[in-house]
Amino acid sequence: MLTTEPGPDVAPYHDRQIVLLPQGAGVHWLDLSAAEDLMLRPCPAGSLTVQKVWPESP
User: Fold this and answer.
1) What is the spatial distance between Cα 55 and Cα 58, in angstroms, rounded to a whole number?
2) Residues 18-54 as b or e (16 or more Cβ within 10 Å = b)
């Protein structure tokens, strides 16, 4: 699991975020054909949905 600084969706909750590779980037990561800094970035705002699951709402 790779982590990076949090994007705007995660920052209010944690100081790190899992790296989500863009679609099609997996092969570039495996064969080292793209620069790390192009892939190891936080997600842009609005990429992730935040949903409270605990504690349960009344």
Assistant:
1) 9
2) ebbeeeeeeeeeeeeeeeeeebebbbeeeeeeeeeee
Percent helix, strand and coil across the chain, each rounded to 5? 15, 5, 80
Other C-beta atoms within 10 Å of 5: how many? 12
> 12-26: per-residue pLDDT in tens?
999 999 998 888 888
Tokens standing for residue 7: 């994007």
* Residue 42 Cα distances to 9, 31, 45, 55, 57, angstroms: 9, 21, 9, 27, 29
In the chain, what percentage of residues exceed pLDDT 90?
A: 29
